[in-house]
Design goal:
Chain A: This is SigE family RNA polymerase sigma factor. Chain A: Belongs to the sigma-70 factor family. ECF subfamily. Chain A: Keywords: DNA-binding, Sigma factor, Transcription, Transcription regulation. The complex is a heterodimer of chains A (182) and B (265). By secondary structure, chain A is mainly alpha-helical. In chain A, 71% of the residues lie in helices and 0% in strands. Chain A has two domains: 82 residues, Rna Polymerase Sigma Factor, Chain: A, CATH 1.10.1740; 85 residues, Arc Repressor Mutant, subunit A. Chain A has nine helices and no strands. In chain A, helix 7 packs across helix 9. The termini of chain A are far apart. Chain B is an alpha+beta fold. Chain B has two domains: 85 residues, no CATH class; 160 residues, 3-Layer(aba) Sandwich (Protein Transport Mog1p, Chain A), CATH 3.40.1000. Chain B has four helices and seven strands. In chain B, a hairpin with a 4-residue loop joins strand 5 and strand 6. The chains are: A mainly alpha (182), B alpha+beta (265). At the A-B interface, helix 1, helix 2, helix 4, helix 5 and helix 6 of A face helix 1, helix 2, strand 6 and strand 7 of B.
């Protein structure tokens, strides 16, 4: 790779690594795996760099590679053999400010926990639309499907997410809803 | 819950992200190593092809006059750097299937697996092939580039399963060298003469509690499609037993299925 290409890739990686890792975390629910997925994605982008850097939507190309990398990871035989897809591992949050209150944690936990119960492509559609703020057309390009499929995946994903959050709410509130803290 | 609640929830979910450890130089060094490894694979395949030609061509031509002078060796003063075999192949033509087409194709492959199982798995009984689908059981989307299924069976009183994953041309982004990354020493090339490259990947041997073994065979086809057949020494759909019996299938048995044109998209 030419020196100028190396420099432009370095700028790309520095600029997008964090956002790719955040998307990966929303996909998989594990910061360690998210870090691996981000690194794998950037390595793949590097290998294609001389071919793709004329593309104006480099960020979305990175998202496409990330999505495929994650789906491939999920389909690996040893992943398929595990029954841990719905588990949300504990992650340290040493920058979390308790003063932000219980509500933020509540929403954060429930939405992401609910998201992790969705089928992967519905999950991806919601992350791309509501976290990355992509348009329907951009989401379709990243997912490699039609705009109609994006709309249907998003609608089904939202329905499922609402149901999942409601169920999680009921489970968490149920035992303690009537408890009086003294 | 509104769409804004979803936006807020997703934004808040990543609020506690750990510090980013990104070293672009190390990352680029890793990428360069992979490119070099692809080049080595290309050299190996080219060498194998030359070796096959050297062995088969004289036999095909017939006996020759051993006293005839040998042709001078071809020499060249320049060497050409091998081109890494790209994956997917550059001329791959992606195939887009509707959900209805995928369901139909899945039904065909499910019937095929049911028919062929007694031949490939001698002695297997109670064979149950699950419907081919996507990530969620029974869920297939328009434009989905893959289908997966499990074939569950009983052998010598133990329940096992095979995983079958078929990918349309261009849908499997990882190439032959990349599937071996988790454990390069566990990879073995079985055959390069069956319309593509067949790899046996010893994915996981004797790890876990109880120790389990998973053996995957990938058939990378020239049209850019991929079929992987995965053998387990237990049934992934059932509760993990206290101990696992010996692996009931060999890489060759899995390869018989992986290369069969009846499987594929």
């Amino acid at each position: 790779m030419r020196q100028t290409d190396e420099e432009s890739f370095r700028r790309f990686a520095t600029r997008y690594a964090a956002s790719l890792r955040r998307s990966a975390f929303l996909f998989c629910g594990d910061w360690h795996l998210a870090e691996d997925l981000m690194q794998q994605t950037l390595v793949k982008v590097y290998r294609s760099w001389s071919r793709i850097q004329q593309d104006e939507s480099l960020a979305n190309y990175g998202r496409t590679v990330l999505l495929r990398t994650w789906l491939d990871e999920k389909r690996r035989p040893w992943r398929r053999s595990e029954h841990t897809a719905e588990a949300v591992p504990d992650t340290a949050d040493d920058r979390h400010d308790p003063a932000n209150g219980v509500h933020r944690m509540w929403v954060r936990d429930l939405v992401h926990r609910g998201l992790l119960t969705l089928p992967p492509r519905q999950r991806a559609a919601l992350v791309l639309r509501y976290f990355d703020d992509l348009s329907v057309a951009e989401t379709a390009a990243v997912l490699g499907c039609s705009e109609g499929t994006v709309k249907s995946q998003t609608a089904r994903g939202l329905d499922t997410l609402r149901a999942s959050v409601a169920r999680l709410s009921a489970e968490e509130l149920g035992p303690t809803a009537g408890r009086v803290v003294t | 819950m509104t769409e804004q609640d979803v936006r807020d929830g997703l934004a808040n979910a990543v609020a506690g992200e750990p510090p980013l450890r990104l070293d672009p130089d190390a990352l680029m060094a890793t990428a360069r190593r992979q490119v070099r490894r692809r080049a080595l694979v290309a050299v190996s395949l080219a060498t194998a092809a030359v070796a096959v030609a050297a062995v088969t061509l004289p036999a095909a031509i017939g006996p020759r006059d051993d006293l005839a002078p040998a042709a001078p060796p071809v020499t060249t003063s320049t060497t050409t750097a091998p081109t890494p075999p790209p994956w997917p192949p550059p001329d791959v033509e992606p195939r887009v299937h509707t959900a209805a087409e995928l369901y139909r194709r899945g039904d065909q492959m499910r019937a095929f697996l049911g028919d062929v199982a007694p031949t490939v798995l001698p002695g297997a009984t109670d064979v149950e092939v699950a419907p081919f689908a996507g990530e969620a059981a029974g869920d297939v989307d328009d434009g989905q580039g893959y289908l997966t299924s499990f074939a569950h069976y009983t052998l010598d009183g133990n329940r096992f399963a095979l995983g079958v994953n078929v990918y349309a041309p261009g849908a499997h982004s990882e190439g032959p060298d990349e599937v071996c990354v988790p454990d390069p020493d566990g990879c073995e090339t079985l055959d390069t003469e069956r319309g593509g490259q067949v790899l046996a990947v010893d994915v996981r041997t004797g790890r876990g509690d109880p120790p389990i073994t998973i053996l995957a065979v990938y058939h990378f086809r020239r049209d850019g499609s991929v079929v992987s057949v995965v053998g387990y020494d237990y049934d992934p759909a059932a509760t993990l037993p206290m101990s696992t019996p010996p692996m009931p299938v060999t890489a060759e048995q899995l390869a018989r299925l992986a290369v069969d044109p009846a499987l594929g998209l």
